[in-house]
Amino acid sequence: MIDGRATRLRAPQPHPAEPFLRRTGFGTQRVAIVEDDELLRELFELVLTEVGYSVAIWAAGMPVLPFLRQARPDLLVLDLRLGEREGEMVLDELRRDPDFAGLPVLVCTGDHAAARRLEASAANQGLAILLKPFGIARFLKQVIRLTGSELLVSSR
Fold first, then answer.
1. 103-153 pLDDT, tens per residue?
2. What does 69-95 look like in DSSP terms, one character per residue?
3. Tell me, what's the pLDDT at 42?
4. How would you label 73-91 residue by residue, b for 16+ Cβ within 10 Å and e otherwise?
5. What is the Cα gyration radius of the chain?
6. Is CATH 3.40.50.2300 what the domain over 25-146 is classified as, yes or no?
7. Where are the domains of the chain?
């Protein structure tokens, strides 16, 4: 907030050589965020960079797999409802692609039916599911677990 007015910081634009990608943070562990809600993308980015992750932000509407090939993440944070593109289809594509078959995925969704469908295979596929709405502490706990990180997170 500046002078009592709410302000929004403008994110840097993608580099022309990396049209699907915006990177922030300086951590050695990389988290890719595929979320169509701009506010959630910004919140995830803020929280993850604050605790030391490097973050790659997906540009809504762009193909997901080329983004992931550029980002080379250690973890994917994936929304299941991406407008025209369903997150479940993205998950299926990831699991069939040898480059991403072992990539841990944190699914964040408000779709309880889809979450139930995924839960049966979640543990065997390096998949964790958070139902929206969820708290930031729960989100960070899952990120840390899935990345094998030793970051210290306050319980506040």
1. 999 999 998 888 888 887 665 678 899 999 999 999 999 999 999 886 544
2. HHH--SEEEEESEETTEEHHHHHHHHH
3. 93
4. bbbbbbbbbbeebebbebb
5. 15
6. yes
7. 25-146
Q: How confident is the model at residue 23 (pLDDT cuts 50, 70, 90)?
A: low
Distance CA 38, CA 133 (A): 15
- Alpha helices per DSSP H over the chain: 38-50, 64-71, 87-96, 112-122, 136-147
Whole-number percent of the chain with pLDDT over 70: 74
CA dihedral 144, 97, 24, 58 (to 10 degrees): -110
Q: How far is CA 98 from the centre of its chain?
A: 20
Residue bearing the bigger pLDDT, 16 or 74: 74
Does the pLDDT value for residue 88 go beyond 60? yes
| Residue 14 buriedness (CB in 10 A; 0-12 / 13-18 / 19+) | middle
Give the separation between CA 147 and CA 22, rounded to whole angstroms. Answer: 20
